[in-house]
Design a protein that fits this description.
Layout (H helix, E strand, L loop, with lengths): L2 H49 L3 E2 L2 E5 L4 E10 L6 E12 L8 E10 L2 E7 L2 E2 L2 H7 L15 E18 L4 E17 L5 E8 L5 E9 L4 E12 L4 H7 L4 E15 L7 E15 L2 E17 L4 E10 L2 E6 L5 H5 L22 E18 L6 E16 L3 E10 L3 E10 L6 E12 L4 H8 L3 E15 L2 E15 L14 H8 L5 E11 L7 H18 L1 H8 L9 E3 L9 H16 L3 E8 L6 H20 L7 E5 L10 E8 L4
Parallel strand pairs: 5-8, 6-8, 16-18, 17-18, 27-28
Antiparallel strand pairs: 1-3, 2-3, 3-4, 4-5, 4-6, 6-7, 8-9, 9-10, 10-11, 11-12, 12-13, 13-14, 14-15, 15-16, 15-17, 18-19, 19-20, 20-21, 21-22, 22-23, 23-24, 24-25, 26-29, 27-29
Helix pairs in contact: 6-7, 7-8, 9-10
Length: 668
């Protein structure tokens, strides 16, 4: 074939090739130009097919050469097609197309700006459940669990200024997270590189949450740092109103915690850090129930798998609490709302049983605390405030011996000191508690005394020491009471006392010459006995003492004046004896001294002799009564305080002489 013909055909072939290339380029350019509006149109037209809801986008940009995709102004509607479920301003991402050939999905960046999500709950139903149902598979085929050989790499993930609103319509509760930001520099799934990221959430009522972490999927290890700053308790109001009946709750929380571990053994994670709560106050309609200025908790380590809690320190400053007791409830009972039904019981699984709780607190410091106890069950309101309360302890543990010390200020300038040593877990095996109350104004205790005895306390200073030990359930208590210038009022007619005690008389007798009362009350018993009651024993012992002293005050008065004579209640005299011996005159002298010391004490000396054989013997008995009467009057005893009589005759073998009884005649 001639060369000219060959060139002629070659020239025509090149024209065809160029035309084909030109057409292909035109098609590609046209497709590039049209892909974005086509994608936008498709989304707007087929949104319900894609996600089960109406969807609208303002713009879609797709670059098939660079892998860049951007969507602006997306709105996802509720099922009714009118209300907005979610929206965002911009979604911008770029994918490496060539990496797809190597089974790698790599996004160079993902930016989502202005996300706004509205979550609604009515009853038990959420507004997003229809979308979950839309994507749920109806297939009954067994799912393929073979690990995927695809590698997913996501870089520079940015979620900026997102908002989430939660509205529980049935419960009328709302939550709003107004500013959520997420930055993940690198996230790798299916590879060997570690992922890292950070989350920042701002709360409506104040507070910032920052979470930063590293996660290595291949090894399963993670390192998480959680930092919560100036979090206002008001953010949790919907939760608190579900649990508590309260008027107001405020406070600020700060948390700085680090957690490290492996996701395959999450309970073996190592958790440590610090928690600070400041200016916390919980109030009901009657005032503040509890609160504090500052609580600091420093955690060395928490191991959930071993159930081990190692706390470096717990420091509480400015704690206040109020406890009100009524006949059928307390303010704490009224504070808690009735609980929801418990979850169904699950069968016991010995393999899943947790380890025994292990708790160690190296430093406990409670400073400037105050407690107020109000008892509304008594005839009069009993209010007992304890202020300047301080507690300190070191190396507290649930196992073994512990010790702590407490001191506080009591009403009227009194002071309280407590020292404790004991085992917490096996508390019945060993306890040692020392309590000292010094200088308590007794008027503060008047409502309780009125309740028990029907008589108010009008004056007095009370001091008390108590040392109690428990060893293998056996309690031994030694209580020493020291009362100065106690004064009791008249018995109240509007009160039915628990015990009818001659309290005013007893206190009158028990006072020594310095206006002091000192006595001991021992308590002993088995705490496992359901009938054992510490306070019941104290009041019974105290009541028996008061009755004994009040009904026979002569011995108590004699002891107060320094007389140790055991014959103050009986003077032995022979039946045939004429006159009195020097020893008998001495006893009468002691009796006269007691009578002169207190003109409210009245004595009866009753002579007991054999039945008189004749009138002469009977006159002899009366003559002896006159001798005794005259001697006491000569010693300065007021005649109205003395009664000398002859009582029932004695039988053979019985002692003869004068039985001496005494009583205090004082208005109760």
């Amino acid at each position: 074939m001639p060369l000219s013909v060959i060139f002629k055909y070659m020239k025509r072939s090149w024209k065809i090739v160029l035309w084909v290339i030109g057409i292909l380029l035109g098609v590609i350019i046209l497709a590039t130009i049209l892909v974005s509006p086509i994608a936008k149109s498709y989304i707007n037209s087929h949104g319900k097919e894609l996600v089960g809801r109406e969807v609208h986008v303002d713009g879609v940009t797709v670059n098939v050469y660079t892998g860049h995709v951007a969507v602006t102004g997306l709105t996802l509607y509720e099922d009714n097609g009118k209300d907005i479920f979610a929206s965002f301003d911009t979604l911008d991402t770029k994918i490496s197309l060539f990496k797809l050939l190597g089974h790698t999905v790599e996004l160079k960046h993902i930016t989502l700006a202005g996300l706004n999500v509205n979550i609604l709950k009515q009853g038990e139903a959420f507004n997003f459940e229809s979308m979950l149902d839309h994507f749920a598979s109806d297939s009954t085929e067994v799912q393929d669990t073979t690990p995927s050989d695809w590698l997913i790499k996501l870089h520079n993930i940015h979620l900026s200024h997102a908002q989430i609103r939660y509205n529980d319509i049935s419960e009328n509760k709302q939550w709003h997270l107004p500013d959520i930001n997420l930055i993940v520099p690198n996230l790798e799934l299916g590879g060997t590189q570690a992922s890292e990221g950070g989350l920042n959430i701002a709360f409506t009522e104040g507070g910032q949450l920052n979470i930063n972490g590293h996660y290595h999927e291949h090894q399963g290890t993670y390192d998480l740092a959680i930092n919560l700053k100036k979090f206002n308790f008001k953010n949790l109001e919907p939760l608190f109103t579900d649990l508590l009946n309260y008027k107001d709750l405020h406070g600020t929380l700060e948390v700085n915690i680090n957690a490290q571990g492996n996701v395959s053994e999450i309970t073996k994670s190592r958790i440590g850090g610090a928690v600070v709560m400041t200016d916390v106050a919980l109030q009901d309609n009657n005032g503040q129930v509890a609160g504090w200025k500052r609580l600091d908790v420093a955690v060395n380590n928490i191991n959930l798998d071993a159930n081990d809690y190692n706390i470096q320190s717990l420091k509480l400053d400015g704690f206040t609490a109020r406890y009100d007791q009524w006949a059928d409830h307390s303010n704490i009972d009224g504070l808690m709302k009735p609980g929801r039904p418990d979850n169904p019981e699950t069968p016991d699984n010995p393999e899943s049983a947790s380890s025994p709780l292990s708790l160690t607190l190296h430093t406990l410091a409670i400073t400037n605390a105050s407690l107020t106890y109000n008892d509304h069950t008594l005839p009069d309101l009993f209010t007992f405030p304890i202020t300047n309360l301080n507690i300190e302890a070191t190396n507290l543990s649930l196992k073994g011996s512990n010790n702590a010390k407490l001191h506080a200020t009591l009403p009227g300038g009194g002071h309280l000191l407590m020292k404790w040593t004991g085992d917490i877990t096996h508390w019945k095996q060993h306890q040692d508690l020392f309590i000292a109350v010094k200088g308590l104004d007794m008027k503060q205790l008047s409502p309780w005394v009125v309740y028990f005895t029907g008589q108010p306390i009008e004056d007095g200073i009370f001091s008390f020491t108590s040392h109690n030990t428990i060893n293998n359930s056996i309690l031994n208590g030694k209580n020493k009471i020291d009362i100065y210038k106690a004064q009791v009022g008249s018995r109240r007619k509007d009160v039915e006392p628990q015990q009818k005690l001659p309290l005013k008389t007893a206190l009158y007798i028990l006072k020594d010459k310095d206006d002091k009362i000192l006595f001991d009350i021992p308590v002993k018993g088995n705490i496992d006995n359901p009938e054992f009651s510490y306070m019941k024993i104290v009041w019974q012992t105290l009541g028996n003492l008061i009755v004994k002293v009040a009904t026979s005050p002569i011995r108590a008065l004699g002891n107060a004046l320094g007389f140790g004579n055991d014959n103050l209640e009986f003077i032995e005299i022979e039946a045939h004896q004429r006159g009195l011996t020097s020893e008998q005159y001495h006893i009468l002298g002691d009796l006269a001294t007691i009578a002169k010391s207190d003109t409210l004490v009245f004595f009866t000396l009753e002579q007991h002799m054999p039945a008189p054989a004749n009138d002469t013997v009977a006159r002899g008995y009366e003559f002896r009564n006159d001798i005794v009467r005259r001697y006491l009057i000569e010693q300065g005893v007021n005649e109205r305080q003395i009664s000398v009589t002859t009582g029932e005759p004695v039988t053979d073998g019985e002692k003869t002489g004068y039985t001496i009884t005494s009583e205090i005649k004082i208005e109760e």
